[in-house]
User: Fold these one by one.
Assistant:
Number 1:
Amino acid sequence: MNTWRNLPGKIWVTLVSLDPRLRVRARRAAAELSPGEAELFAAMSRYDLAHSLAVAARLADDPLLYKAGLLHDAGKLRSELGLLTRWLYTGLEITAPALLRRIAAGIESQATGEGVMESMWGTPHGWRRGLYVQLHHGEIAAEMLARMDSEEELVHLVGHHQLEPRDERELRLKEADDAL
């Protein structure tokens, strides 16, 4: 969740994303992942890589949470979620959350299809699909991970990282994510 409190963390992640060694660090971190998971992780934008590496670093004491930290934003598909849509979402989340909820409800009502991926493709291309991806990126990543037979608990953590935590692991992932 974006708030004024995590703005310093977002600025720090933005600066880290400019580091020319970021992809090297990401390749090293991806050694903990299966080949399919590593490919999904490597496809992330520079900002999402930097953010995910920072989240995972806060969870390094638990191998499963570390992997979840690396992959939790893998559903933010670069092809569908552009920079302007991200800024729109973040700006509305911070300054006008009620308006964002109304817009999101309208987009949800337009989404057609069974399951999150099919609904995404059924959402009109452009900023609407981008907002759908932003709203459902955890579920999108979880569906992709499930298709590659990732471990069930990893799929669950990634898919639920934006929801109300139900146990200690979910809480730790959510807190690490929300801090940055």
Note: The mean pLDDT is 93.
Number 2:
Amino acid sequence: MKILVLDTIHGGAVIGSAFESAGCTVDMVDVYRNSSRIDVKTALSGTYDLVTAPVHLDPDHPLIRSQKSPVITHHEAVRTLLGDALPHPMVEITGAQGKTTTAHALASLMENPGVLLSSRGLIRFPDQENGIRMSITPASVITAAQAAVGQGGWLIAEESLGVTGAGDLAILTSGQTYRFAAGKRDALEYKVRTLRSCKNVLLAPGIAWSMPGAVRVDDAAEVEGIRCQIATKQGGGVFENPLLAEEAYRIPLMLAGTAACLLGLDPAPLSGFCGVEGRMEVRKEGRIVIVDNANSGTNRDTTIAAASLARDTSGCETLTLVIGTGEGDGRVCEGFPDAEIADTICRIRPNRLILVGGVLDPPLLPPDAVSGTFVSRAPTLSAAREAAISATDQGAIVLAVKTWR
């Protein structure tokens, strides 16, 4: 079989190599930089039995539009390549927000050895040994599944824009959506479509879609204050955690606890879950409270929520805000544009402001928004964090730099 694999940057090279190992003849095309050995022009003149393309590629790309052979997605290709060599249990997690927290919270409950694939990379449990840094493209599931099978353990895989359908359970963490693939596809609609082939599905609140057998987390889990009670056909449980009072953690913890019950596990240990670095993680250093919300999904809403959490936790209005984008990779996903950063600062009105990267240069802030505020700059998140700690003797610090970590 001769296969054309599109987009070597976002996992295509891994998928292509896997097909070659299976005995197929493969052409791989870098559709964005056109720097692969087989370029777009050459591929257009070829004949293939199968084409696989990422869902984020423009559906009107010439290599898709002109094909007479079947075209499948990278998600579907990975499902085919995995075959029956699957770890158990295998949980796939997708959604516009909350994926990483849900994945880490659920992993903290798993028994025996296993592998967690998240935006933080590949982590082996129970030692939480960091493996290679990987993206959450569907192709990464191949490597993660092989690692999990190799140690006879479970796999929890965070995936972008849908799931492969190979897992025992799929979780959709958010009903939020956006346009992608040159604005021609709806993200939520596509994610829902990939769930239709899954054995078991767990849905976050606010998803206007039904499927026989799917579990809605708000039907299974009830939160009152910092207490969550869960009841499913497979089992139930209770846990208490102060993070349940925070919107950014409430739904991910409900999802993780409910998923655990669906897998026959006790969610009670979630009482000790302290959060994920960069995802509203709260730490205390002396008299200072530090809320770390620096991650690839940082935006205005999460930063405002982090500032509220920081002030509530510290019991003080004094706040240092570290905000901006990481060098090189800060403008990921939907970006963190200057106008949004400026509006965030105006809403929070910090006592001290540290700008990271090239944001707000020249400044776009109204003079009254920074009146009495000490403003400085730092080249990196690390440098800004150190500067913030050195300059802050009371209150709280919020880290809100958009960056991969």
Note: Residues 2-78 form a domain with the Rossmann fold fold (CATH 3.40.50).
